[in-house]
Amino acid sequence: MSFPIKGFLETSFVDWPGKVASVIFLSHCNFRCPYCHNYDLVLHPDQLPTIPFEQVIQQIKKYKGWVDGVCITGGEPTLFPALVQLIEQLRNEHMLIKLDTNGSRPEVLKKLIDNHLVEHVAMDVKAPLNQESYSNCCGVSVDLEKIKGSIDLLRKTFISYEFRVTAVPTLLKKENLLMLANELKGSEKLTLQNFNPEHPLDPGLKNIKPYTDQEIEEMQEEMNQILKGSNKSEGSAFFYSKPATRNL
Ligand code: SF4
Asked: Which domains does the chain have, with CATH numbers?
């Protein structure tokens, strides 16, 4: 079986916090986030060479014992019909699996979790959970119920998960980020990522000044407080309860 692997990192210390991971980049995505910096995988995947899986697995074997697992990212990996088969091949090498996703396919996520095929999921939550903000930040019209379905699934699951949001100042003001934190109140983690203007899908963002490190730090702190439920200025969370204990 051929897998659309368009990039491979042998070892990474940043893609799976606390673990050493290899990283597999799969092609295609159903979103068009204006700040996407992997957009060659999204817009022109067929122009990129495919890395043979045999080559990838050889490298993974070489680093076995030193690498804890494999991070599967994209693009949007849940679009790939043979994702289960790919993970099963990696499981044969006793690899833990982390999945990066935009959360648009909760049914795939559920299948992976139910079949114990993934240990950690990082879901990019793009904006506060209303249609206009969300579609603005994704560059396409999004089925928000699917996004909420993925959030709900992760919050109730036994596996480790995190939510992440990328802050472009023109798309997400501080009040939008705090609103999102409030909507996700009780979740394990919501990480604020700064926007990188160097190589965005929408060239119009190249001139946008990102938030400063200090602004990011301060907003992250406020979001953490809201997530823990200790910020009195925010209203109540909307549809979730804190998940039970998890096992990673
Ligand atoms: S979800 Fe957005 S940022 Fe992620 S790969 Fe797709 S277009 Fe890029």
From this structure: 5-228 (3.20.20.70)
